[in-house]
Hints:
The complex is a heterodimer of chains A (240) and B (829).
Chain A: H1 4-13, E1 17-26, E2 38-48, E3 53-57, H2 64-71, E4 79-84, E5 87-88, H3 94-104, E6 105-108, H4 120-130, H5 136-146, H6 162-174, E7 180-184, H7 192-209, E8 212-217, H8 220-224, E9 228-233, E10 236-239
Parallel strand pairs in A: 3-8, 3-9, 6-7, 7-8
Antiparallel strand pairs in A: 1-2, 1-4, 4-5, 9-10
Chain B: H1 3-20, H2 24-59, E1 63-67, H3 73-81, E2 85-97, E3 103-111, E4 122-124, E5 142-145, H4 147-153, E6 160-163, E7 166-176, E8 190-194, H5 197-201, E9 211-217, H6 220-234, E10 239-242, H7 248-296, H8 301-339, H9 352-378, H10 397-415, H11 418-449, H12 455-463, H13 465-499, E11 507-512, H14 517-526, E12 531-545, E13 548-549, H15 557-563, E14 566-571, E15 579-584, E16 595-599, H16 600-606, E17 613-618, E18 621-633, E19 644-646, H17 648-651, E20 657-662, H18 668-672, H19 675-678, E21 683-686, H20 688-726, H21 728-740, H22 745-782, H23 791-813, H24 821-828
Helix pairs in contact in B: 1-8, 2-7, 2-8, 2-9, 2-20, 7-9, 7-10, 7-13, 7-20, 8-9, 9-10, 10-11, 11-12, 11-13, 11-22, 12-22, 13-20, 13-22, 13-23, 20-23, 21-24, 22-23
Amino acid sequence: MNDPAIAATSAQTAPLVATNVVKRVLGPGAKSGSAPEMTILHGVSMQANAGEAVAIVGPSGSGKSTLLGILAGLDAPTEGSVTMQGQSLGDLDEDGRAQLRATSVGFVFQSFQLLPGLSALENVMLPLELTQQENVKERALTVLDEVGLSHRASHHPLQLSGGEQQRVAVARAFVSKPALLFADEPTGNLDTATGERIAELMFDMRKNLNAALVLVTHDDDLARSCDRRLRMTDGRLSEL
Amino acid sequence: MTRGQQFNFALKALKRDLAAGELRVLALALVVAVASVTAVGFFTDRVGRAVQRQAADVLAADLVASSGSPVNPEWIDEAKRRNLNTALHTRFPSVVINDDDESQLVAVKAITESYPLRGTLTLATLEAPDVRADLSIPAPGTAWIDPQLRDILQLSQGSLLALGAKDFVVERIITFEPDAGENVMELSPRVMININDLAEAELLIEGSRARYSLLMAGEDADVDGMSEWLSDNYATEARVQGVRDGGPQLQRALERAERFLGLASVVTVLLAGAAIALAVRHFAYRQADASAVLRTLGASRSDVISWLVIRLSLIAIIASAIGVAIGWLAQLVLADLLSTWFSLELPAAGIQPPIIGTLTAFITLAGFGLLPVIKAGQVPVMRVLQRDYSDLQTGSVITAILALLATFCVVWLLSGDAKLSAIVVLGVVAMLSVFALFGKYMIRAVRKVAGPRFRLSVAGLERRTASSVVQLSAFAMGIMALLLIAIVRVDILAAWERDLPEDAPNVFVVNIQPDQVEGFGQRLEEQGINNNGFFPMVRGRLAAHNGESIVQDDMSERDERRARREYNLTYSNELPAANDIVDGQWWSEDETGLYLSVEQEWAEEYNYQVGDTMTFKVAGVETTGTIRNLRKVDWESFQVNFFVVASPAMLAEFPQTFVSSFYLDGNFSKATSGWAREFPGIATLDIGAIVARIKTLMDRASLAVEYVFFFTLLAGTCVLLAAVQSSQGERIRESALLRALGASHKQIRHAVVSEFAILGIIAGFLAAFFATLIAWALSREVFELPFSINPSLWFFGVVGGALGISIAGYLATRRVLHTPPIVALRHSA
């Protein structure tokens, strides 16, 4: 894999993102001051290919979000490896992983994670601004229009409903046309009807971009919309 | 990202921050810090220099070098090389004779044209003594005289006065001589002549007791440089006097004013620093989540940190500019206000205060804010998925060290004194530790005694123990600083008022013969003048210390001159007023031994102790006494004071004259006319003008004190605001939750206000305790003022603290009462 030519060839056939026997152990103090050492993930291996939607389900505290964080390069595994677009995340430093995220990854969170000081439009513009792209405002407005919120562009997150905030978050996730989308309980904070609309929107946009999706959810219906479903139980992953 | 791109991005973020009010508290704290440092700087700089100039008036120069031999031409060359203006005068005692062959001992001062370099010499003709008729220098062959001499010798305009080998035409009387008060006890009537007449008058011959002085004035740095140069090269030859070496009264007033201004400005900066520390910590907390989100979106850690640092720097630049502008405007208003108080124009504002103000902002921000902001930029990105993944840890040993280093640098920048800065830093650490420790226990104690009505408030305090203790320390520090500055300010002003009451003596009469005392006393009584008694004065030279001769063969000229100095001694069985024994005991009337009482500072300088013997040579006879005690003399009292007081047994039999002082209300010339003829030989000295000048100086210094206090108050308020703001978000969320659970507005208001009131009471109590302790130490060691426990301090500390903080807390959190709970809860999500 050290040869760039081989790496380029294998990237076309290789999964977009994959973990190989990933283990995550939280040491004392890492999560809460005096907690004893705790294994969150016990040698998890999985992959997601281009255009594929993978759902991870499981009870609270089973390690779903930790796995998602590791897949997205937000956290590093204690053991094992993660590759994204053929690149081993372990070989990249924090800035390298950030750069990969900026160009290839979109996120949708349960708690929306919009910046409260910015308007809806500014929140959507953010990923494009970070990568110094052209026509930032026009592109952000277009995507905001796609999620049906162009009329709320100047509103701040606190002035928007939960569903609207999540639509802004979806627009932000897709504005940079990522190859890979991570979603952590995207409907978890929304009522059923709003959640369904958000899920529909997210799946439609993913399809248009042919992006891979890794989705963590409690919602079985939502999970069933995905191509594959994996269950996480006590830090161990199994195919459903 | 390139630096330029980072800057642009940070600029955009800053605009959004400002629009959203994110940086309001931090910006306010910075503006107050810079404005107060700048304004205090401008003030101390401009007014301080004006006050110094006022003090320079009393010296007629910024610097005087005098010697027993003619002024060394090298001194003049050096002064000119340093761009200093110069003037010369030569002073010596002599005798003048009028047309009727009547003679009088006088103090001659021969001057050059530029004398005085500071202050104004005012003159009048002998015909119209109340109308100013100034001239620049006595024309050759003319003399200006003291009004007393006119009375004693019955002189009129144009009278001839023989002085040495030359006759002088009396041209003017001197109505005010700026440096006349240099030695009030030894003044014979003044005669001022042109220095070029000295040779022709053949007044100065070998061995004349003349003092030759070079007066110098100019920029502070040049004056300081010259003073150093003289001390380095001519320490034994020249006696160098600067503004600070002026009369003891002035010196003390100046020192106290400077110390207070210094203290107040350091306290102001410390308070502003605390406000910045709290605000930037709050900012860092607020930025942690945003930083994590930005990094999930692909921003690198260094990008995020750069944006935060650039934003802080931009805020510091903007706040500094606004702060400097406010400081500048404040001092402009002040200068305008002062123009009615000041007879002389304020020196122009220097460039230093805005630089120091801006530096203060940057150093404080870097010291207190850099690490929390870097940590905010480094917060684990997993925080976006799992909120409790890692909390922002801004408190660490390195953060504390950086903060202390910044405090040290700022205090050093302001005081220029590394030792003082270290003491301040250690003091702050010790104080905050005590505040934190006691605060924690006091919060626990309150929980035990609080009734059900306060359960909610105390629970709030307990739940946030760490932030409550931080807030408590900030409140206590703020209240303490305000109390302290308030007490010290009032004490200083009161002490000055005491030192210089309205009826402070403004006339000294010396050389009263023993047989004139009764008659002169009656005369004063007839004129309705209350004098402060008659004090015997015996002149003598110090011959030996513990039996060892004072004058040694190998002494320098200067030391020998000092050793041969003639002292004014007095004797008494009673401790003089405004004197306190600091070592040993006063003698009783029954004791008939030969005892001495010596002024403490003099004794320290020449190394005399209780039990030592001193031998004085009085009228050719040696008399030896034992030092029974050391006295502290209040030189600011303007009473007749002596370095050495003897028991009557030691000096009563020697030739003596008497001296008296009193307050004269009204025209000096009219009141004293006729005294010189009725009581031949007495010399009357009007020091009213000098007293008035010192009063003016103190008035100005008082104004400075008041002015600086205002800025301290502002900085203190800022700390309170920042401390309240630091927990505002948390309080808003909690209150929203309580409202969601059904709590009424009234209940929430009660909980918030009483929580702040409890904090205020504890902080006020701690503050009052420490303010008392520090005020005691300052009064004793720094300001040398008597100390008394001030009960109002406890009242203002505890009641004021509770009221002030609960009002501030309520105002800062009242928003929650008008915000629907769902909005606040959604905000917290």
